[in-house]
Design brief:
Chain B: Belongs to the binding-protein-dependent transport system permease family. Chain B: This is Sugar ABC transporter permease. Chain B: It is a multi-pass membrane protein. The structure holds 2 protein chains of 2 kinds. Chain A is mostly helical. Chain A has a domain of 164 residues: MetI-like (MetI-like fold), CATH 1.10.3720.10. Helix content of chain A is 73%, strand content 3%. In chain A, strands 1-2 form a two-stranded antiparallel sheet. Chain A is globular and about 70 Å long. Chain B is an all-alpha fold. Chain B folds into 2 domains: 58 residues, no CATH class; 207 residues, MetI-like (MetI-like fold), CATH 1.10.3720. The longest helix of chain B is centred in the first third of the chain and has 35 residues. Chain B starts with a helix and ends with a helix. Chains A and B meet through helix 1, helix 2, helix 3, helix 5 and helix 6 of A and helix 1, helix 3, helix 4, helix 5 and helix 8 of B.
Chain lengths: 317, 277
């Protein structure tokens, strides 16, 4: 900077343009120049595919080469397909349990980790967060071994603790596939949401607690009257992102169930259904129809969540 | 007195519970590390680490000599580093423009970006594949890197952090004769260091762990990145758990390393958008 100062000050000063400095014509183009690489790529690979998928959803395709107009056929077939019903049901079950387990768990951990009296907080935070460094694929490979019957660590541990049979087949028994997926993803993601809650808790105005204590509020009352309202925006954010993330579940079951949907399609998710139909069999039009169904479902549910949580706020006031 | 003692007991109990929970969370990771140091015979014989005389690196040796793991690793390093650099440049540049300039169409751009953030990425996979097929980018790294070269999330991150840079600083530079690009490169980027750290880690994790899109776009095994390569190995060497665990650990280590380096920035970057919300 000092270099520039030394070499070029006179030129600008001579143009005499007041304190804010009039911009030269090239400066006016600068912002356009700066956003243009992004805009071009975003238009071609972001916006265009969204628009194109609206069209593609109404075509029968066999790979990118052959495309025939199909009207609403894709959607009709989709809604009639029992596999799709299974995929939607599994995804909803997974999303429900993810939200119900992860959010209270993450909030509880965050509240405790925010207490000054707790020893080893830095270590504990790192410990709870550490699984997030693993991608779903690596977690999938790891847990398919941990959940193995007879030898797997999970069965060994549960056998020693509560006497669960050693041959519990987590990934081969349709009834146990979903619990296995839900618990694996709880292990994986609870620390991520915990970080959000921790940041929110640290931003809560301390004076509010003092005021509440003077009013004689106990810990529970303080939690309801001060903590919850203060962290509400972050709680809504965590709720919506956890739900959206759950709806996109693919890698974890796909890898854990050995590139399949598992016994009786117990691990089939909407995105896995999309992948299998669109890219294994090459029906890109059908995949677009599934994609739009997923997108609209996700949008409706996240809007509903935001509305509901907004309504709670109105009630609180 | 009595209540104080019960508070103390409660705190001790909660502390112990927290450490127990942490132990449960860490157990799979400790087991993973231990598994990579055992021979295949010992794999399920010892719960965690075997006696020192039984420790071996043979599984790593097998992984590199009996499988194309080194190839997958190199591919991933290449694809990920290019992706991170390109994303960093485009996102920070666009974020700067959106944070510090008033120009026509700005609000429309931001609105469209926000709208696409709400749509799941899987929506565009089929049309994107179709587009890349016609651009002859299927089964190439271009097809992997180019569509992912811009990150809307990254632009929002940079926009948010660059808004905090005082306008006076930029004005002073302008008066000193800095070009607009110099302002970005010499002033905004250096002061954005923490956000650059956060972004690099987030972007690295995204590219490194990416599975679905590489699985769709890459057909030839020589091009495979680590996640799809490892998944390939799982189906070939289903019973060679030691090898697979070694591959899993090696796939995780680069992220751990970066995280240790950038930990503080990472948390600040993650929560920059959410807490104010």
């Amino acid at each position: 900077m000092s270099n520039i100062l030394a070499t070029r000050p006179a030129i600008k000063a001579a143009s005499g343009t007041g304190p804010r400095g009039r911009r030269s014509p090239s400066d006016k183009f600068a912002p356009y120049l700066f956003v243009s690489p992004f805009l071009i790529l975003f238009a071609v690979f972001g916006v265009w595919p969204i628009l194109h998928s609206l069209i593609l959803a109404f075509y029968h395709t066999n790979g990118p080469k052959s495309q025939v107009f199909a009207g609403f056929d894709n959607f009709k077939f989709l809604f009639a397909d029992p596999d799709f019903h299974t995929a939607v049901w599994n995804t909803l079950v997974f999303a429900f349990w993810s939200v119900v387990l992860q959010i209270p768990f993450a909030l509880g951990l965050a509240i405790l980790l925010n207490q000054r009296w707790l020893r080893g907080r830095t270590f504990l935070r790192l410990a709870f967060f550490s699984p997030n460094l693993l991608g779903q694929v690596f977690v999938g490979v790891l847990f398919s071994v941990l959940l193995a019957p007879q030898y797997g660590l999970v069965n060994k541990g549960l056998h020693a603790l509560i006497g669960l049979p050693l041959d519990t087949k987590w990934l081969a028994n349709p009834a146990l596939v979903m619990p296995a997926l839900i618990l694996t993803s709880l292990w994986l993601y609870v620390g991520f949401n915990m970080i959000y809650f921790l940041a929110a808790l640290q931003a809560v105005d301390k004076e509010l607690y003092e005021a509440a204590m003077i009013d004689g509020a106990g810990p529970w009352r303080q939690f309801l009257a001060v903590t919850l309202p203060s962290i509400r925006p972050v709680a809504v954010f965590v709720l919506v992102t956890t739900t959206i993330g759950s709806f996109q579940l693919f890698e974890l079951p796909y890898i854990m169930l050995n590139n399949s949907a598992g016994p009786d399609n117990a691990g089939l998710t909407v995105v896995m259904y999309l992948y299998n139909n669109g890219f294994v069999t090459g029906n890109l039009g059908y995949a677009s129809a599934v994609g739009w169904t997923l997108a609209i479902g996700v949008l409706l549910i996240s809007l509903a969540q935001m509305r509901m949580t907004g309504a709670w706020k109105a009630e609180a006031k | 007195m009595n209540t104080e003692r019960s508070v103390q007991t409660g705190r001790t109990a909660l502390t112990i519970t927290m450490f127990l929970l942490a132990a449960i969370v860490l157990t799979p990771l400790v087991w993973l590390v231990a598994a990579t140091l055992k021979s295949s015979d010992d794999m399920f014989h010892y719960t965690f680490f075997p006696p020192v005389s039984h420790l071996t690196l043979s599984e790593y040796h097998d992984l590199f000599t009996k499988s194309p793991f080194a190839r997958y690793l190199a591919n991933s390093v290449f694809v990920t580093s290019v992706t991170v650099m390109v994303q960093l440049f485009f996102s920070s540049l666009a974020g700067f423009a959106l944070a510090k300039y008033e120009f026509k169409g700005k609000n429309i751009i931001v609105a469209i970006m926000l709208a696409t953030l709400l749509l799941p990425g899987q929506l565009t996979m089929a049309p994107l594949y179709d587009l890349l097929y016609h651009m002859k980018m299927v089964d190439s790294y271009a097809g992997l890197i180019v569509p992912g070269a811009v990150s809307v999330f990254g632009i929002f991150l940079f926009r948010q952090s660059i808004q905090q840079v005082p306008d006076e600083l930029l004005q002073a530079a302008r008066i000193d004769g800095c070009s607009e690009f110099q302002i970005y490169w010499d002033i905004v980027m250096p002061v954005s260091r923490p956000m650059i750290g956060a972004f690099c880690l987030i972007s690295f994790m995204g590219a490194w762990n990416s599975f679905l899109w590489p699985q769709i776009i890459l057909h030839h095994a020589e091009l495979f990145t680590l996640p799809i390569g490892l998944n390939q190995l799982v189906s070939i060497y289903q019973t060679q758990y030691g090898m697979l665990m070694a591959g899993t650990l090696l796939g995780v280590l680069p992220v751990v390393f970066l995280f240790v380096l950038l930990q503080k920035e990472f948390v600040a970057g993650l929560t920059a958008g959410a807490v104010k919300g």
